[in-house]
Structure formats: structure tokens, C-alpha cells
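Deviations from the work plan: none for this task. Representative record:
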Amino acid sequence: MKTLIIDDDEIVIFIHKTLVEQSGLDNEPVVCLNGREAHDYLMTANPENKYLLLLDINMPVMDGWELMQTLQNHSIYDRIYTVMVTSSIDQIDRVKSREFVKIIKYLEKPLTLEDVMGIKKGIEN
Amino acid sequence: MAIAFTLYMTTKFKTIFCVLLLQAFYTYSYSASSSNEIEWLKNNIKELSIACNASWPPLEHIDEEGVYRGLAADYVALLESHLQMTFPKKVFHRWDTLLSSIEKGEVSVVAAIQKTAERESFLLFSDPYLTVPVALITKKGYNLASENELSKMKIAGVNGYAVNDYLEKKYPNVELTVYKDDLTALMQTVLGNCDGTVIDLPTASFLVRKYGLSNLELGCQLEFSWVLSFGVSREYPELINLINSFLNTIPEPQKNEIYASYINLENLEKLSKLDKIIDNLWILLLILLIITLIAIGYITILKRKNLNQVQKAYDQLNFHYINTPLAIVEWDNRFIIRKWSIRAEGLFEWTASEVEGRHFDDFSFVHEADLQKVNKAVQTMMGGTVDRFTIMNRNYTKSGKTIFCKWHNSILKNKSGQVLSIFSFVENISDIKKAEQFLRETSEVGNVGGWEIDLITKKNLWSSITRKIFDVDDHYEPDLDNAINFYKEGTSRNRIRQFVSDAVDKGMPWDAELEIISAKGIEKWVRTRGRVELQHDKTVRLYGMVRDITYLKQKESYIAYKSKLLEALTKIHMMLLENREGLEVLSHCFRIVGETIEADRVYYFKKHKDSLTGKSLISQVLEWHNPEADAQINNPLLQNMSFDYEPDLYNSLLERKHFSAIISQLNSSHLRSILEEQQIQSILIFPVYIDDHFEGFIGIDDCRFERLWTEDEVSILKNLSMLMAIYLQRKQAEKQIIESNKRYEYATSATLDAIWEMDLQSREVIWAKGYEDHFGYRDQKLPAEIVFVSRIHPNDRKQVIDSFQTIIKNGYNLWSAEYRYLKADGNYVQVSDRCIILRNNEGIALKAIGAMRDISERIKYINAIKDQNKNLREIAWMQSHLLRAPVAKLLGLLDLFNRDFVDDIKKQKILTYIHESAKEIDLVIGKINDKTFKES
């Protein structure tokens, strides 16, 4: 399982990277600064692998929702799990996340080690 | 060759020969076995059975009485007497069975065996102790001209003998038939089944004598000889050492004596014509023979000695390969791996079969960053100018781990200096490197001092940085008790005492953050780490490091405080924007602020006017207080206060600035006495403005300390006042709605309503005066089509008429509707229209009497409130979203900062990020304030 950290904020990337590495989820997570970078990565990625996306909503170039909509049309969609990690507390976003079967969790920032361990456990089960 | 030569000599010459040889053999030394090896042997002797060949006389065989005899048996007996132990023995009647049994590990030792490459896979060989010539025995009169004739002969041999390989390789056309033992093989020649039998000379001699085989003669001696050694199963390298030690104790004359007692080859002397001539001339050749003999003998001894030494060295090397704690790698002169020890397998994870025969470049073995360094070392070693070379570099293991290795290389060269091979002993120094790295990193991050306590000499050493941390000079002589006493009494001292005790008693290391009081009385935080040095499981030395982390701790607590303030502010934002009812929400916010900044009271004073004089007064209306401070909400002195009490306070509030004071420093005034009465030591006040009108102020008291309010505390109060303003403004708007509704309720008089009466038969409408007043129409009598139908807003018309007709039709008596109505000035206004239906006894509707009221003012209020609420919602959304992102980051960083797994380097980075996030929050709050007040 390869983990993709998709966020445009340097500090958030630092926090998420530290937690993902520490939890043992992935020793070398891939960092993407927006949805477009994540999309390009996944289009050339090994289709046999599985991918975990830690996805922010508001980003330049391509936001989290646009990425999810684009991925829906590709076969790689079956190989991904997405956790929305956002600073939005807007209920509309939370409700919208239910439209995508591949969004397994909706978490408000800040992400903690316990959250990541929970994600890991969830995926392992 | 020398021994082979002796076969031709008579006994009298042998005596002379032996005397001459003795001088050369004196160079042999005696050696003794170590006590450890003897001890090992005692424990393992039962498993070390010797395989006895029953059919190889005179070297070894079982005699008629079942006794193990022969030349090799004599060596075994000597060995047993030397070691004072007896080996278990197992008899084999066939050599091939014996060999396969030893290969399977069913027996451990064979007393006389030729070393071959194949046998080395399951046997270790002692130093050779006997060289036995091998010959071709033919029938008398066969007259073999030379060994080369073998290629055309039919030969008999013994199954499993090493000589068979020699014959087949050298004479590929030889017709060799193998038999179970030497006697059977020899009998084939006696019986004429073969042209000759390949057999060692002592065995042939023994069998000829024993069985009276008179028709045989020595055809030729082969260039092949048995070089016999003890063979020991590879499982027992210790036994080989013992056997070699034993062989070295036997003086050469004794060896010769053993040899001579079994080997008598006279019966096989070849009586050729040439031999007869030699026989006649033997006296003439004697001197020459002796001289040659000495020379050859000497060379043989040297060769043998060399062979022994090489064998010994080889065995020792093998022993090292197996037993050394270091990994060993042997390279050839092209740096291709020849040998890869078990330890090397353990260290690098590749097995010998995976790497032997490969160059180090052929697999991912040397770390890329060190490749240049390693290649340079290879060049140096291959240059032939050095005998030894040590290099430290990083290597990869098979699983891709990086390890630090110290390679101790010995370069083996021939006499001309050409490199033959390189032996490398590899030491894994990863732990040392990690420790160095750790020290370097910690030294980079902060000032790290070292210390050590020698528990034997009681010597204590403190580095200069340690002395600096504890504020002691260079002359200070530390001891363990004094060092412990520097730690702050209570938790810190108890913990360090426990750490030291556990380190001394149980060898446990420690790593903790503790408080000390330095020699100058300064309180500091230190991180202390202790390690132990053990000797024979006993702690002999404690050592470690100490680092001043006071700054870090202060920063930590500052950050924690700042984060608490931000968290409080976020909570207040949420609560006030949730638009909860009542003053409870404000008291709740006051409590959050009070608890966060550890104040004694938080309160709100509201401005109002004196009902008699119209003068502006101010009264306390809301308060939160710390349980340890007295409540002042019911203090009459705090009601109806005049602003004249304190002009400084008044002016600050009018200028929209905060006012703060330490009460003892205020000029004597009425205000000061009021504040002193409440035991207030410090005060901080901030005005609350709504739409440029001063509404009151909020304040904080500290009754315990004369406190200088920090920028953060002023900022949180400023935020509270702004949020309160928004809250109060909204509440005022809501109040206005309620008031306007009340007005509507009161205004049931005709003056506000236009009263109308409609004859439902003639459909004529008569209006009262209010119709003109409120709607501008003078006509008082009009047809219903004009009054209602054409003046109702087209979009509302159908619905209104339908509802009215439904009421009439269905027999109801009351009707009401709200719709837009056209005024005389051409504008539509919102009206509320209600009427009562009058019916006759049959229920037929005759008249409708109604009142129509202009409710546009009320709608205006409602819309104003709606707009206000929309604005407030937008502000709330913006505040929560803009502020939440940096607050979330800050909370995430603080969470990471407090985690144990985050190292110091990362912590430094986190501190930088925390600083950035805090700045971002400041910026966002500024923006929110601008936006909030602009919008509201």
C-alpha cells in the first residue's frame, strides 16, 4: 500500500509525513502539492498496487473534489482508499464526501498519530 | 621419493640411512595439547568412533584374534596412550563401505586416508604422517618396460581407492577392474585374470609373505604415492588439532621404527638383468648413493615440513573461519570473492553460494557514497606496497540495510611481490557510528556536557560544558552525592537517585528531563542521559551527557500558553457566533477567558443614563469570578458609577483603547479606593463599541499579583470585546423585531387599518377613512373588481381570490391573507387583510367586513434582521474557516512536539513552524477584525 499525501501546505505535509512514517503506514510516502500532481502520479503508477490518499479539499490547480471526480473514470479508482483531511468544518463538505464510495473517512485537521494508527488498522482489517 | 627409495635397500643399509636421517629430524619440536581441548575431548569421546579397515594389512586390519593391528593401528594406539583415552571403534571389511559411513557421519575418524578434493567436503585431514609408494605388481616374467605400458594393460584395483582416479586420468585407455579389497585384487593377477594389480607396496609385500604368493614381482612403482593422514569428520575441528599436536610429539626415529616393523619388501625385489649388474657394482655406488640419499632426504624433510606448515596454516585458517566472531572474506587478486565465512553470511545476509565467484561490483554491496573510497583502497592494496590495509566504509546487506564496516585486510603476496589474495576480517561498527552520529547531532542542537563516574576509583569527571551548566568552576571536584544534590528536591532528585541506583545495581541506562538548581541558585531544566560499563556483569563505570534545555522548556511552556490562548479564542468565536440565547453564553465566554489567563474576575459594565438627570452612568451587569475571589456583582458601589471617577480610564475608553493599571501605582482617587476595597492588584479594561457608540466595557482583575498584562492577554480581551459587540448588536436587532411586533399587536385601532365592507351580492365595496390615509385613494365606494382584483399584485391575485371564494363557498366565516397591494402612488405595499363573513339563516354569504393593514414596515424589520443574520452567518463562516486552518496546524505541531518519537532536530523544525503558524494566526485575526467591523 503506497500512501499519497496531497496538500498544498508545507507544515501540513510535514505533520502528515511524520505521522505516516512513524505509524509504519509507509516509510516513504509520496507528496503531491495539488490534485493534478496526485492524478499524474496515479496515472503512471503500478496498477497492481493499492494506494491510500490523505486528501485535502481546498488546493490550487485541482482541488480534492475535482481529483475524486476525475479518478472515478479510471480503473485505478478500484485500487484507492481516500481519507479526506481538511480544516473545513462545513457540514456540506462532510455530506459531499458520502457521494464517493472510495472515501473511507472524513477527518478534521489536525491529524494525530492515533488517527493514522486508526486508518492503518482499518485498512489492515 | 626418499621413502620409496628405501624399498630397494637391504636392512644393513637402512640402519646407516636411519642414522644419517636422524640429524635432520631433530628439527622437529614437541607441542602439547591445550587443557581446553582435552576437556572438550573428555566430554565428546563417546561420539568419536574410529573406523577400522579390516582388510588393509599391514597398514590396518583385524587379525585372526579380532585385534585391530597394523601400522595405522599402532598410531591409533599411540594417540590413545598420548591422550590417555580410548576411542570407540567400528570395523569395516570394505573400504567403500567405510568411506560412505564416514561421509554419512556414522563414524568420526579414519586412521589412514589419502586426502582428495572430494573427501575434503566431509573430512578434515591431519598433518600427513606416512607416505606409502604405490606400485603395479605383475606376474613374474611379465617384464614391464615402463609405467606407460599401463595404458594397454588389464589392471585390478580396489573400489574407492584414490589411485583409481589417478590411473583413469593419466591412462584413459586402461582397463581397470575394481574389487572389494587388496587381497582379492592381487589374486586376480596371481590367477592370471589381470595383467597386474595396483596396490601399495607394504600391502603387496604383506600379502605375498602371508599367503606365499611366489609368482609375483614388482612391475613398476607408480608416480603416485599414498600420503596418509588421519581423517576427522568436519564436525570436530578440535580433534584435528589434538591429532596434529600428537603427531608432532612423535620423534622421527620412532616413526621409522614403526614403519620398518611393517614394511619388508625384499620378497618383491625385481631381479632384472640391470639389477644384477647393480648388485655386482653396489660397493662402488655405495658412497654416491649415501650422498644422494642425504640430499634427497633433506629436501624431502623440508618439503614435508613445508607441507605440514601449509596444512597447519590451512587448518588454522579453517578453524578461524568457523570460530572467529568477525566475518571473513577471502578475495582473489581480481577482487573476486573466494571464500565467505558463516559470520559473513550472518552480517551481510548473502550466503556463500550467492557471492562466491562474484566481484563486489557485481551486486549491491558497497554503498554508492563510499565506492570511490573503496576503489582507491583496492588500488592501494593491489599496488603490492602494503601488507595490511584497514578501511571503514558503508556496505549494504542483502535486504538493503546500510551498515558501517571496518575492513581489516591482509594482503598475501608471492616472493616477487605479486598479490595472490586478500583476507579481510570485517567488523560491524554500525552501533559505534550511530553513537557518534547521535553525539554529533546532540552537540549541534545544544550544548552537551559529558560526565563519568568510575565506581572503582571513585573518580568523577565533568566536562567544561557540564561545569558551565551546573555553574561550577574548573576547581570544583564533583562527587556522586553532590551531583545528585544539584537536582531539585522532590521529583527530580528522587528520580535521579533511582536512576543511579538502577544503573549501579541492574546496569540500566537512563534518559530523562529533570530540574536542577545550579551552584548560583539558578533553576534550570536539563536532559540527562546515563550509560553503564559492565565488567563481569558488574557496573564499574557510569557515564553520559547532560544538556541545558531551559530555553527549550521555556519556549515549550510559552508555546503551550499561546496555544491555550488561541484555543480559548476559537471557543469564544464559536460560542458567540452560534447565536445562543441569554447572558449565559457571555458568562461562559468570561469563564473561558478567566481560566485561560488565570485571572480572578472577568466582567461587563454597561453604560446607561440616569433617569432623573440624564447623565451617563455605568453599572456592572455580568461577572465571572474565580472561586477563590469574592463576587462583586452585588456590590452597590459598582452600580450607577460616574465616569468622573477616573479621567484616565474615561479618556482611554473614549479613544477605544484599553486601560490597564497596577492599583498601588494609581493616584489616590475614588476609583482607586473602590478597587482596593475589592482587593484588586491589577486591572485591564477594554471598551465595547457598537456602530461607533460606546456601550460599556469588559474588564479583568487580578487580586493576587501586581500583574503586567502581556500583549497576548490584551489581545484576547480586545477580541472578546469585539465579539461581544457583534453579539450585542445582533441581540439589539432581535430586540427591535420583537418591539416592532409588539407595536403591531398594539395597533389594532382603525387608524392603522383600512376598514372595508363588501356587499357580496352587488360586489360593491365601501371603504372607511383609513383607506385614503394608508393607501391614498379618495373613492370610498367602488366595485370589488377594481378594489381588489385590479389592485392586487398580479402575482398574488389568483391565490388571494381563490382563497376568498373557497371560504365563501365552504361556509367559513373568517378569511385572512397577506399580499401586495397597489397604492395610489403606484407602489405596492405588503398588506395583511382579514375579514368576517356575514351570512343569512340559510348560510348564504351576504356581506364581508374587513380590515386591511399596511405591514411593509414590519416586513422591513424582518428583512433587516434577515440581512443582519445573513451577514453574521457569513462572518461566522469566514472566522471559523480562516482561523481554523492555522489553529489546526498549530495544534498538530504542538501534538507532534510532545511526542516521544520526535527527535531534537525535528523539534527545532517544529518550533520554526510553530512560530510561522502563530504569525499566520495573528494575521488572520487582524483580517477578521477588519472584515467583521466593516460588515457589521
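Strands of chain A lie at 2-6, 30-32, 51-55, 80-86, 103-108.
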